[in-house]
Amino acid sequence: MTLYEIETERLVLRQWRDGDWVGLHRTYGDPEVMGWIGAAAGDLPSTAAAVGRMSMHWRLLGYGMFAVEERSTREIVGRVGLMLHPDWPLEGPRVEVGWTLQRSAWGRGYATEGAKASLGFAFDVLHLPQIFSMTRPDNARSRAVMERCGLTQRGELEFHSWKQVHYAIDRKDWPPRDAHLPRMNIRKVGER
Ligand SMILES: CC(C)(COP(=O)(O)OP(=O)(O)OC[C@H]1O[C@@H](n2cnc3c(N)ncnc32)[C@H](O)[C@@H]1OP(=O)(O)O)[C@@H](O)C(=O)NCCC(=O)NCCS
Predict the structure, then answer these.
(1) Does the beta carbon of 27 lie inside 6 Å of ligand 1?
(2) What is the mean pLDDT of the chain?
(3) Residue 111 binned pLDDT confidence (cut-offs 50, 70, 90)
(4) Radius of gyration (C-alpha) of the chain in whole angstroms
(5) Contact, 6 vs 186, CB < 8 A?
(6) Which candidate, 132, 129, 130, places its Cα nearest to that of 159?
(7) How many A from CA of 107 to the centre of ligand 1?
(8) Which domains are assigned to the chain?
């Protein structure tokens, strides 16, 4: 399975490394951040386990959630990328684009920059026909990221007992005409 990393103007979306859980814990250990994704903030070992699951997803499927490293500080500020939901009830590849950043990194456009790079990877490298994204209807920040990336609202449904609004974009609509795409450099970093 080929592993990839993507460099954008301000971020490196990279593979997970041992010890990354310490940086990611600024995100996963924050109850306000985790509340938005329907999870409780855990302890450091539970963040390490989450890093293990994201690494395994990459190795099994050849795509997944990237560690988001800020180029100016070399710090991990969260995660962004692709995730398979095998039990998503609608037709399609069932691959979601998602984002979760530590609070100090909100309001800088990082989620949108990382999401656009992840969509470019999904369509131009993986050739997936469609990508969806879901969130709680009251998550205005996340919905704004979806809209800035050209995803359009497709409906609402209950998933894992949570009401979710879902958006999607088809490969034929990528890249959206009015979405500024960040400069990005997608590179292979190894085989697993
Ligand atoms: C969802 C989440 C990732 C969105 O983060 P965000 O910082 O609001 O989103 P973006 O990266 O697109 O940033 C957009 C903001 O940065 C601002 N910005 C500042 N500099 C910018 C730049 N150079 N380029 C683009 N936008 C910039 C924009 O004006 C916008 O500000 P606004 O929120 O005041 O309108 C973040 O709120 C989060 O982690 N939430 C908790 C987890 C979560 O909900 N995950 C999604 C679950 S489905």
Answers:
(1) no
(2) 97
(3) very high
(4) 15
(5) yes
(6) 132
(7) 5
(8) 2-180 (3.40.630.30)
